[in-house]
Protein: Glutathione S-transferase
Organism: Trypanosoma cruzi
Amino acid sequence: MAYRVLGSPYALVLHQHVAYLRLRRQPFKVYCRTLTTTLFYALLFRARNAFCTVTPDGKSHLQMWQLVDAVERSGIQSVEDPFLVKKRTHPNIHLATWSIFVYASWWLAKTGAMYRWVDGESIEVVEGYFRYFLLIPGIGVPRAIVRQFRQAMQRLTSVTGVSRETAPYMHEHFQRLCGALEEHFQQHSETMFLLGTPHPTLADVSMGAAFSANFLMDDPPASFVVQKFPHLNRYLERVTGWRGGLFVGAEHTEEMNEWVSKASDGYADVIPESLSAFFQLIEEVMPFMLSQCAAFHAFMAGDGVRQLKREPLEGPWKGCSGYLVPQVTDIKSLMIIDNGVYTVRARAQDLEVALLAAREVVDDDFNTDDEGLSEVAEASTQKLTSESPTLTHETLRPESGSKTRAVVSSGTSLDTNVAAEMDAGDSLAEDADFHRVFTKSNYRQRGVLSMRRGTSNLSSIAVDSRLDALRTMLYKMHHPHYTLSSVFHGRKMFVAIIPEYEVDRKRKETKGGVV
């Protein structure tokens, strides 16, 4: 029996499922030609909706981590065929994996939306959307319609921080990302997988899917990646099966057969130093997600929770109740780029990813039956409290009296038509830290600011220091009182905020064999 992957060819989640099942060497079939045919197959296979993966036993899974949990717990894996990295044996690789998972699922998804709807000019993707969702032949679509469609999508993406104002930084960040990965794979040409492990991990799935769903499908940046970064492109072909904008599956990927014969646990828990520049880029933007998680904590602790509907849940959470939130929430945080202060509304799935990763890294009792994790937890806690790595090298507070452009809008957060010059001291609390990043055109401003990080070399700080900073941020993201999970409610999909006492009760019932 094969896994049935349903969805849109332009959706990140479909590419995540395909990349995982392919690397996991599981039989699968993809149904994504048009929405009509996808709906037909969803009914045929009794899927909960048209954007999920149906397992051989008939269960529907929305998100990649739900599919991974189902596959890894199904008993098909063996000691010789590993995939998930154990925190007990490889805590550093485990931390790196979940940090990359958040970065790829959240920030690179934003960057992909920027290239697709803001920076791109190609009409192929828009025609593809018309073919999939509206059954309109793509040939001959007037450019005026394409332009109007892009403008409509830009209005949707702007509320989550993707706009013409933030595009320059995202564009430069992506170029630096490709350069850092190219240098890493050039130095380690014999390395098959990102973290130097002898087998694929979730880091390979999340990075590969982010590229295949966005950067290898849209041009730009597809030609930019293929022409300027051959080592990176070779890695992407290996882990995704995409070549020249086409999915070739197992073809031209004969090297994938090699990792099966390698030892599964006989490798060191060491991250290559050549990835220091890559983790610096993650560390550079991760405070934006930390800010969203802090806003979520405040939202749930304040009156915001009263705005949410609490409903009984279905499926694996049957017997529990949760607060249902839509994809774009009312939880707001700031994104500061150069002198622009942008109000960003958090996506529920981004919060779900971040809090899941934080719990995986911080909570040693979560999702594991390994023994001895209390020792790892104690060591990690002592390291955090003794060294106290901070984020002050990139968390910058505007000086009193300085002028900062605050972009505010009732419709979209990034509407420059209502931008106004205002005193930063009036709009930003003095006792709060506000993370700030710069584009190259404003790079000279960094010299005025107090920074710990050097500006001449991306990899000037050891990779262990990068991981310590990421561990600290994940520790601050962790919310022990709620679990977020994508759920079906009827035939619609929501993210449910489930009180932890109900989650604990459900887990005890499951372990006790009640469910």
